[in-house]
Write a structure and sequence with these properties.
The chain has 318 residues and is α+β, with helices and mostly antiparallel strands. It contains five helices and 18 strands. The strands form two sheets. It has a 16-stranded antiparallel β-barrel with strand order 3-4-5-6-7-8-9-10-11-12-13-14-15-16-17-18. The longest helix is centred in the first third of the chain and has 37 residues, at 2-38. The model has no long low-confidence stretch (mean pLDDT 89).
Length: 318
């Protein structure tokens, strides 16, 4: 009898660590299942921080990365949210980087859309612009950009006082993000069809008016060249670090863009333009400007060969 009791006690003592291990495994399993059920980035971060030695760790990390992608690669994500992610994460999720690049490389995006040589610096909301030539009447324009920074409407006034309205529609899919679909002006509608390369990057647009836009990327994945074919004219735009630095036209003319680095905002701002015919400089433009805290130009004065040409004033409504 004494032997039996001793044996039972020993067996119980031996079983205690096993029981503790089973309990710990149950806790880990429950925590993992809870994180999976919740499915948020925060839930996976909590699990990964609390159970770094878990057998579920690698799978949890993969699911966390998937949750990060889903939280940014969706129809509701704003340009500001994407920019914050790109600026604050050195090791970008490849899918998010591609999603962001496809967005900003649209020809109507506020990072790419160029008007009167003055870019929009990735703005959203409404931009009201007054263009005052050295001689003549002021022209007033309005640009409306959505939360993703894509131009949805442009109301342009020409030097004769005539106003033309352009409206833009976009398509969306979860793999590639947003793409330009239609451009409407009066009774005319131009339809765009996007194409993507094997890495799901935007590679070309074709239109039903026989225009074409093609994209070339550097090894880093940033835009290196955009070629626009329209009306029998080919324009080749060369970019460096997201900024246009040169445009070559098939008629033999070219434009070179010069920048200053603004230390207050950490952005490059256009300060000069040179026009060429072959190797000969045909015109030079210098630019003085004022910017807001977001590096958006609020006032700019263009001079041509040292003489005032036009002044541009802009107000922004986010």
């Amino acid at each position: 009898m004494r032997h039996t009791i001793t044996t039972l006690i020993a067996a119980a003592l031996f079983a205690l660590p096993l029981y503790a291990q089973e309990t710990e495994r149950d806790d880990v399993r429950q925590a993992y299942n809870l994180a999976r059920q919740t499915g948020t980035v925060e839930a996976w971060d909590i699990f990964l921080n609390n159970y770094p030695d878990s057998p579920y760790f690698e799978q949890a990390r993969k699911l966390r990365d998937d949750a990060v992608v889903k939280s940014y690669c969706n129809e509701r994500t704003t340009l500001d949210q994407l920019v914050a992610y790109i600026d604050n994460n050195e090791a970008h999720e490849p899918r998010i980087k591609t999603f962001y690049a496809n967005l900003v490389n649209n020809p109507t995006h506020s990072y790419r859309h160029e008007n009167l040589w003055l870019g929009f610096a990735g703005c959203t909301g409404t931009v009201r612009e007054t263009v005052t030539p050295a001689r003549g009447k002021a022209m007033r324009n309005t640009y409306e950009f959505n939360a993703q920074g894509l131009l949805t409407r442009a109301v342009i006034t020409d030097d004769r006082g005539r106003t033309v309205t352009h409206d833009y529609d976009y398509a969306y899919d979860n793999l590639h993000g947003y793409s330009l679909k239609n451009e409407r002006s009066g009774k005319t509608t131009v339809r765009y069809v996007p194409f993507y390369d094997r890495d799901d990057r935007l590679s070309m647009y074709t239109t039903d008016d026989r225009s074409r836009i093609t994209y070339t990327y550097a090894e880093s994945g940033t835009l290196e060249r955009m070629v626009i074919v329209h009306g029998g004219i080919t324009r080749t735009r060369t970019y460096n670090g997201g900024y246009i630095i040169r445009e070559d036209v098939s008629d033999g003319t070219a434009t070179r863009y010069l920048y200053d680095f603004d230390t207050a905002t950490g952005k490059k701002l256009l300060c000069g333009i040179k026009r060429y015919k072959g190797n000969e400089v045909t015109a030079e433009y210098s630019i003085k400007y004022r910017v807001d805290t977001h590096a958006r130009i609020t006032w700019a004065q263009f001079s041509h060969n040292g003489k005032p040409l036009r002044t541009i004033e802009r107000t922004y409504t986010d």
